[in-house]
Design goal:
- This protein is α+β, with helices and mostly antiparallel strands and 376 residues long.
- 48% of the residues lie in helices and 14% in strands.
- It is globular.
């Protein structure tokens, strides 16, 4: 067993850290305050060629850690400039359509948006109601998708739709749907509490026609593609949240050394020092679980249960760690002058996205009791 990163990965981490501290940190509050997508940061990231290191899921985790430590709002968009998810390869899509999208994402100039969740179905894969009906000219998409990240700025949607009448997870397929097609509504953008730099909302598809060769991969494999994405993304979410919690601990340690109460720095009081020690320990365990999950993905092994563990547990402990750090700073920690309130808002959203704690515990419980590892 080897718990160390390679020399190349450490060099890669150093380059990402330098970029994040120098170019993201000075603007860390901007995207949350203004509710804007961080296009300048995403494009700068691509210009520097940092995304050339995206050769593995572990390297993806390294990027997420270093960027999220500085600014949560930039980590999620930067992640998608060259993320190695299989669905983004656009298998089966004509190369003259797929290549400009892939290259545009890598250069930070284009965005593809995942359209999976619906008003009446999210984690309940089998209950998705959006349909794709085949005719002699192609496919007709009808339905509504919500919780759509990058709504309003995406160049194309990846839409999961039902291609079989029977309601099961094996009747779903994935499609590329350019955003400028007739029948696609203007997105209704939601006013989220956190991660305000990434617009999310609701999109309607009303008799949207796409060519036959806009089917991604194989017919009926939509669930498989979604599961691959979510299993890995849950570990990525764990690193997003743990980085913000780690930043909170680091800042609170420095504050506790200097803040004097009753003649002593508050670091001398176990109520403060033990809480930080506990949080530090939990974050070490969280990071190991996330990187194990990403390592499994790089090795080509399934990581459904490990991803579910990352997703239900890590956002919850990180929320609590940041809350304790906020309280340690007193009333000043409760103000918007310090970053804790934003971190709490941002982390809270990821207790919901990509599977609620209850759904993820169900996945783990099914494994424990000999059932299927997935929902549906």
């Amino acid at each position: 067993m080897d718990f160390s990163f390679t020399e190349e990965q450490e060099i890669f981490r150093a380059s990402v850290r330098k970029f994040a501290r120098k170019e993201i940190s000075p603007r860390a509050k901007e995207w949350d305050r203004e509710g804007k997508y961080p296009w300048p940061i995403v494009r700068r990231f691509a210009e520097l060629g940092i995304n050339s290191g995206f050769v593995s899921y572990v390297n993806t985790g390294i990027v997420v850690e270093e960027v999220a430590y500085v600014d949560f709002n930039c980590a999620f968009p930067v992640l998608f400039t060259a993320v190695p998810y299989r669905i983004y390869r656009l298998e089966g899509i004509p190369e003259n359509i797929a290549r400009p999208l892939r290259d545009g994402m890598a250069s930070g100039k284009k965005v593809m948006s995942i359209c999976f969740t619906e008003p009446e179905a999210g984690s309940d894969f089998a209950n998705l109601a959006t349909t794709a009906t085949q005719n002699k000219d192609g496919w007709i998409i009808n339905g509504c998708k919500n919780s759509v990240s990058f709504a309003g700025i995406a160049d194309a949607y990846i839409v999961w739709a039902r291609t079989e009448k029977e309601k099961s997870i094996w009747g779903l397929s994935s499609f590329l749907v350019p955003c400028d097609l007739s029948g696609i509504s203007a997105p209704k953008i939601w006013d989220d509490m956190g991660t305000r730099g990434t617009p999310r909302g609701e999109v309607y598809f009303d008799n949207v026609h796409i060519p036959s060769n806009y089917l991604i991969g194989e017919l009926g494999k939509g669930f498989e593609y979604a599961a691959e994405l979510y299993d890995v993304n849950r570990a990525i979410i764990g690193l997003l949240c743990s980085s913000q919690a780690q930043a909170s601990i680091d800042e609170t340690v420095e504050y506790a050394k200097k803040r004097v109460v009753f003649g002593n720095p508050i670091s001398k009081y176990q109520a403060i020092s033990f809480a930080l020690a506990e949080g530090y320990t939990l974050l070490e365990a969280a990071r190991l679980l996330c990187y194990k999950t990403l390592w499994l993905a790089d090795k080509g092994h399934r990581q459904t249960v490990e991803g579910a563990m990352c997703k239900w547990w890590i956002p919850e402990i990180c929320f609590e760690i940041v809350r304790k750090c906020l309280i340690a700073h007193g009333h000043y920690g409760y103000t918007k002058d310090l970053p804790f309130e934003q971190r709490i808002r941002d982390i809270l959203g990821w207790q919901i996205g990509d599977g609620t704690p209850e759904i993820c515990k169900l996945i783990i419980a099914r494994k424990l009791f000999g059932g299927k590892e997935f929902t549906g």
